[in-house]
Design a protein that fits this description.
This protein is mainly α and 83 residues long. Helices cover 46% and strands 5% of the residues.
């Protein structure tokens, strides 16, 4: 059985280059629709470069946080053509 954290990271790992998902969408896919803040907390502590946390944004379309800096998140998303 997978933990909530491992389910979140598994979903985020599958987000293709040039695409984004919201924290809320990930929470829904994990089966905990109100846990979008928990999703953000998990991603803020992830430093595995194989998991593209920068591809997760807020539901209102704003970029949200990123543990390597909001500026870096924007640069990465622009480079991938997601924004």
């Amino acid at each position: 059985m997978f933990s909530f954290k491992s389910k979140v990271l598994k979903i985020v790992k599958k987000i293709p280059k040039g695409r984004v998902m919201t924290y809320k969408e990930i929470a829904w896919r994990v089966g905990r629709p109100l846990a979008y803040r928990a999703v953000g907390n998990i991603l803020s502590r992830n430093y595995n470069p194989g998991i593209p946390c920068h591809r997760v944004i807020r539901s209102d379309g704003k970029l949200g946080g990123y543990n390597r800096g909001a500026r870096r998140k924007k640069i990465l998303l622009e480079k991938e053509g997601a924004i």
